Amino acid sequence: MRPQANIRAPGPAREDEPRAERASGPERPATTDRASVPGRLGTAERPSDRERPGAPERAQAAGIVLAGGRSTRMGRPKAWLEWHGSTLLHRVAGILARAVDGPVVVVRAPGQELPALPPGVRVVEDAREGRGPLQGLAAGLTAVADDADLAYVSSTDVPFLHPAFVARVLAAAAHEDADVALPVAHGFRHPLAAAYRTSLLANVEELIALDRMRPAFLFERCRALELDEQALLRDTALARSDPDLLSLMNVNDPGEYERARGRGAPIVTVRRFGTLAPASDREPLELRAATLAAAAAAAGVPLDRHVVAAVNGEQITRDPELPLAAGDTVAFLAADAGG
Amino acid sequence: MSTARGSSTVVVDAGSTPRRRPRAQAEASSGPGGYFGRALVVDLPDGGSGPLPLPEDVLRGCIGGAGLGAWLMHRLAPPRVAPLAPEAPLAFVFSPLVGTPLTTSAKFAVVSKSPLTGMLNDALASSHFAIAGKLTGNDAIVIRGACVEPSVLLIDGDGARVEAAGELWGLSAAEAERRLRERHGAGWRVAAIGPAGERLVRFATVSHDGRHAGRGGLGAVLGAKRLKAVAVRSAGVKAPIADPQAVLEAARELRARSFGPATAKYRELGTLANLLSFNAISTLPTRNFQAAAFDEAPRLAAEELHELRQVARDYCASCSIGCEHIYKAPGGKQARVEYENVFALGPLCGVSDPDSVLAASARCDDLGIDTISAGGTIAWAMECAERGLIDDRWLRFGDAGAMLRALDEIASREGLGDLLAEGSRRAAAAVGGGAEAFAPHVKGLELPGYEPRTLQAMALGLAVNARGADHNRSGAYEADLSGDLDRLTGGERHAAAAIETEDRAAVMDSLILCKFLRGVFEDPFPEWAELLAPVTGWDVTGDELRGTARRIVLAKRLYNLREGWTRAADWLPERFLGESLELASGREAALTPERLRAMIDAYYERRGLDPDGRPLPATEGELGLELFALR
User: Fold this and answer.
1) Is A318 in contact with B272 (Cβ distance < 8 A)?
2) Taking CB atoms and an 8 Å cutoff, what residues of chain B touch A240?
3) With an 8 Å Cβ cutoff, is A163 touching chain B?
4) Band of the pLDDT at A68, cuts 50, 70, 90?
5) B489 and A334: CB-CB below 8 Å?
6) B120, B200 Cβ separation under 8 angstroms
7) Would you call B482 and A306 a contact, using CB atoms and an 8 Å cutoff?
8) Residue among B449, B489, B601 minimizing CB distance to A54
9) DSSP symbol at B518
10) pLDDT at A31
11) Residue B456: CA atoms inside 13 Å, Cβ hemisphere, count?
């Protein structure tokens, strides 16, 4: 491993304490579920499904959502919180799936019941709960280490997480060759909104074995790149999409949840092509929609088998539950593309 | 003048000397419904003709159209024949559905060895020629030999005959068609070539009623035979239908479905509706595939042209969709506009002026050249000029006047046009200096308007298809645009998807049904079987048709193998494997050689081919490929 080299960006910082207490134990997690139709943007496949011929191509980044917290202050499971027609966990997992080219896994506590997840998102399980984020991190890294070099690790309770934020943090880790890219903003370090090199798995397991369960112990043992607000927003895409870094806003209690819910669904731009727009009204629409289905409904587009969508010109999707983020441009196209 | 008349018929038996017998009246065969059970084989220059029996196992194994065309080429084309040699056959092939009330069934295939690719080539066109041609009492018309002077071939119930046609030479196909019908009567239906075919432009088309059998240079094959046109007239004998009432009911139901949402795009805006959609998702090839989006695409969009310039909408015979959108072009002309025309003569050449693109499209129609190959070859030459690889500095991206000049020079084979008339592969080999790396072709056929780096199932489809880079024989872009797989990262599932769309195309092109109808079929193979069964009387099933599809796809591959194909031909130009594209989102899209190779390996394995792309013995046995051996 590389020598310790924490790179501090300007600004105050203190550790954001783990939001979930977890049980101790070095046991490897087991894959417990896997959707049959994997997807990057909604229904597109995951790399692990697609690369059997020849040597597999390794993804740049995976996504890990830690869902095993007890939600004590919230009083009910955060994973199940309603979010504009979806659930908080579905949304966060879906946003990660949009932002990374590798697999997305959700780490749950033993026996924890989860809401429906986006196609292709895998579920792995901690053997013991209540031991904090390093335990979940170990489970997640174990699940993705063969597929990707980096993993963005997220908590469940970040309803405003934006793909541009995830991309920014991952790019910082990749470009600076850091073991961890750690946002430091709003007066906190954010280890559950950070990028980790998957090769850290052995270190994480060693810390767990030593019962040193705080993420700060990991940062002491590796090259951690701290990203302050200025550094984060140097990325123009992020500055445009999430200038207030709402991606880092988590909801811990019913009051925070209600206030966040009151902000409304993200504002997106909808473009309708071909026969999907009336001749008299082909202009792009600006509307609020948290999912593809909501955008289609608001734009008067029937999301049936004859219609597909592309978000920001990338993957094609038909997934009605695909989460949308502020500033997205959704293109609805005829599925019959011949000509 | 080629004065000999086909006053007798010849029983064609490949490998033996034809023997003549008195001409028989066309009559319905006692075989399966939808067929006459024979092809008419015409030998030039004298026009002597005779029936080639088409056994039922051949018909059931190949159906018609492209499938039966493949069998005819296996059977009648001499091995390694030069595509423009007199002895190279060219076939007009009909299908069992032609003449039935099934919507979009009035189609025919034109099949030969391609002068552009040197491989098997089939291209489809539509309308009354198909109906009249089949009503001559033949399931196919095969032409061999060549005339000594410009001629036309006329076929009806009296057989085949050749007429001199020097006065038609040099005319557009449409004008030649008009004059022939004026001279002989409106009952005659005409497939003709334009000036480009006469001058053996390797991507010349065969045209009927303004629609082109466009790809692969079939017009040059007719031109090499000095045939300006082939005219057909009904002999009034219909092929039997096994269950006419069931066919009528199926036709009624299919027609109703053809008015649904699956065809809305074609009915309301036409295929040009693709342009803005593709631009939005970075799949619109631009400036010889140097980019995948074109800033000025909205100027050429269907939505824009439809409101400002549309003058008419047209239908092929027996069609209820009506996909043809006809626009005003400069000089009082009208242009049938399709996505492929506009992509190739617009963004691919960097041209954004709609007047110029419509004029270029109309010019291609008049000259009788394939818009895709023309645009691709000119765009390649524009890049060569900008890189200083050719001296013709007048040719620049975005210069519409230069593009129109290049079209004229190609058709007349003057100046630079003589080189460009050879297509981008041969031209790049002649120019050298690295020009081959960005020549936009596979097997010599220029790429259609689907960017392979952002449509990676399509990248595979383009690479492995027997016809070359083509969107009508491999519709793998449908998988890319379905949302079911990652269009930016090809893998094994992409191979499966490419095979599925190739198989579907093989059946549709053999039945023949228009591909614009494909969206109305939710479970296509069984549904197609339900259309074919009452026509033929066969107990055909969806599973059987899946096998038929695989057989037809591999029959084409077998033909190419016979003609010298090797695995190296299943590949994409270097540009697509060495240059990445930046998407609107900022993400890079790239296709590596390793990924393409892996997809091809997976394709071969799933197709039952060995690592060199040859059918394994077990595959040959399973699919009955011995059908294509000479008997």
Assistant:
1) no
2) none
3) no
4) confident
5) no
6) no
7) no
8) B601
9) G
10) 37
11) 33
From the list B271, B489, B599, which residue is nearest A339 (CB)?
B271
Chain A / chain B CB contacts < 8 angstroms = 159
Question: Would the CATH topology of A30-257 be identical to that of A265-334?
Answer: no
Nearest CA in chain A to B267: A275
CATH of segment(s) A30-257: 3.90.550.10
Q: Whole-angstrom Cα distance, residue A89 to residue A157?
A: 8
Distance from CA of B268 to the nearest CA of A (A): 7
Average pLDDT, chain A: 85
Cα gap B386→B416, rounded to integer Å: 15
Q: Where are the domains of chain A?
A: 30-257, 265-334
What is the model's pTM? 0.89
- Residue A34's pLDDT is 31
Q: Are B478 and A37 an interchain contact pair (Cβ–Cβ within 8 Å)?
A: no
Is A335 in the B-facing interface, judged by CB distances under 8 Å? yes
CB-CB under 8 Å, A313 with B280: yes
Mean pLDDT of A2-11: 41
First to last CA, chain B: 36
| Residue located via tokens 């593809």 | A292
In the numeric block, the tokens 């050749």 are attached to: B162
Could you tell me the domains of chain B?
9-232 (3.60.9.10), 258-446 (1.10.569.10), 456-628 (1.10.599.10)
Q: Do A339 and B481 touch (CB under 8 A)?
A: no
Mean pLDDT of chain B: 93
Measured between beta carbons, which residues in chain A are less than 8 angstroms from residue B516?
A: 336, 338
CA distances from B361 to B334, B354, B378, B404 (A): 10, 10, 14, 10
Quick: pLDDT tens for B63-73.
999 999 999 99
Per-residue model confidence as pLDDT tens digits over B553-595? 999 999 999 999 999 999 999 999 999 999 988 889 999 999 9
Torsion, Cα A155 A156 A158 A161, to 10 degrees, reads 80
- Nearest chain B residue to A39, by CA: B485
Cβ neighbours for A55, distance < 8 A, ≥ 6 positions apart:
B594, B598
CA–CA gap between residue A304 and residue B610 (Å, rounded):
40
Query: Tens digit of pLDDT for each residue in A221-230?
Result: 999 999 999 9
Q: From the list B494, B519, B584, which residue is nearest A336 (CB)?
A: B519
For the stretch B453-482, pLDDT in tens is 999 999 999 999 999 999 999 999 999 999
ipTM, 2 decimals?
0.87
- Shortest Cα distance, chain A CAs vs residue B524, angstroms: 15
Rounded mean pLDDT, B16-29: 38
Residue B57, pLDDT > 90, answer yes
C-alpha distances in angstroms, B574 versus B216, B291, B343, B431, B571? 22, 15, 21, 16, 9
> Who among A306, A315, A334 is closest to B486 (CB)?
A315
Return the amino acid letter for B162: V
**Mutation target among A314, A319, A322 for the B interface, most CBs of B within 10 A:** A314
User: Is A334 in Cβ contact with B273 (below 8 Å)?
Assistant: yes
Q: Is there a contact between B306 and B313 (Cβ–Cβ < 8 Å)?
A: no
Architecture in CATH for domain A265-334: Roll (3.10)
